[in-house]
Structure formats: structure tokens, C-alpha cells
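We append the chain.
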Amino acid sequence: MNREHGERGHRSDRRTRLTVLVALAANLLIAAAKTVGGLLASSPALLSEAAHSVADSLNEIFLLAALRRSRRPADRRHPFGYGKERWFWSLLAAVGIFVMGGCFSFFQTFEALREGDRPVSAGHYAAGLAVLGVALLAEGTSLVRALYQYRREGDEARDPAHRTVIAEDSAAVVGVLFAMAGMGLHLITGRVAWEAAASLAIGLLLVYVAYRLGREARDFLIGVAVDPGMRRAVRAMLDEQPEIDNVAALLTMRLGVDSVLLAARVDLAPGLDSEEVELVSERIKAAVLDRWPEADQVFLDITEAPPHPGR
């Protein structure tokens, strides 16, 4: 069972890696096109989107590193494995989105307002809008693939790399729409304030995405419990064991995408000798692992319950 769980994890990794690679290829191509178009048109909104795509590309390289490094086997220094590396690299991706995307967009807003209104080239702006149209198609395709994988995996889609791609692609689609609106209104009205507003909106959007991703990564790095449904089910299973008199405490923590630590303090029914206690402990651990293959670290702190009154 544990072997099957490991194979499922590696298959999921391969699908996630393909999703990240598709997003990376799209972002590299789009970043180059946006940069050229933004420089030719001197468009702050398009340059903000170029910085957004560059940040996403760097972050996807981080996520590819996370997929590889988090699967390293446990060793003496890291006895619970390297699963939390997924969230470490996801945290770096959040910082990258904030610094390279959000802060640069704010800078473009300030620069656009400082320089004020100026004549624009209709041809260059038309080319820039065409670049954004292609970017919208590419980002939308990447987002659809990521959402398809998420829906296919259902409740198992806990991979921070996968969710980061979804967040990045969703922000990219909205950001492109902001940039197109800003450029179009600037071209029509001659007022650069529209593009400044678009750059500001893109920056705020990226800061929000970075905050959400960073907060999630922080929670998992600190140590987050399993979902309440799984915790209740584990406790109910322990309560059903005839040898267990009382479950005094049950602590859980996610160690990785598909690795969970369970630690329970239980009181066994009186009268069991040491050999029976060991057999009961091993049987319970095996039953938990069989039902929840991700619970690969199970610890039972066993004490003998005091005799009940009247016995």
C-alpha cells in the first residue's frame, strides 16, 4: 500500500512538473514579447506585465527545484524527509512575485505619472495590444491545463507548486486584461493616467497573490495540522479499537504533500502484558497506514488505564 502511495505521488509529480514546464515556456516567450513591445511603445502597463512574466518565469524555476528536492529520501539530519521544501520554494516564489512583479509595477506607476502625458505611436501601441492578445491566449491555455489537473486530482491536489501555477496564471490573465484596458484608454484619450492606473492595479494584484501564497507557505513551514475531517476519522478509528480505553490526545502535522505525522497518547485497557501491548501498537499503526497511506509517521504514546471502579 505504501509503495502504491509512493508511485501515485511520483505520477502526480510528473503531471505537476509538466504543468510547470508549460507555464514556464509560455512565460518566457511572453516575457520577451512584452519587453520588446513595452520598450518600443514606452508603455508602463506593458512593461509592468513584462516584469510580471519575468517574475513568473523565475518562480517556475524555483518550483521545478522544489519538485526535485522535496522527493529526496530521509537521512540522519532530516529524519522526516524533505517534503517541506515544497513550501520553502513556494515562499521564495511569493517573494519573487512581490519584489519583481509588484514593486516594479508600482515603480512604473510613479514613472508614468512623473513624466505626464506625451504623444504615443498608434502603430507601436497596436503592436503592444497584439502582444497582449497572444499573451492572454497563452496564459489562458496554461491556466486551463492547471485547473484541469487540479480538478482531476480533487482533494489530493495539495501540491503548493501546482497551486502556485494556478495563482500565477490567474493573476497573469487578469493582469493582461488590466494592461489592455490601460493601453487602449491611453491610446483613445491621450491620458497616461489610464496606464498608470493599470500598472497600479497590476502591482496590487501581484502583492495580493504574493501575500496569499506566502501566508500558506508560512503556515505549512511552521507546521499545520491535517484537515479536521481526517483528524476526526483517525480519532474515531482509535476510539473503536477494543484495546484502547481512552484517546487522551491526538496531534497531527503535514510533513509534505503526501506525508503526515500522527502522534496519539492513548490509555490501553488494563490487564495487557508488554508483548500484547507491542502487538496492539503495531496492529493499530498498520491499520492507520492502510487507511491513510500518507500517514507514514505514526507514533503512539501508550499508558495503561487505571482499573475502572467496581472491576
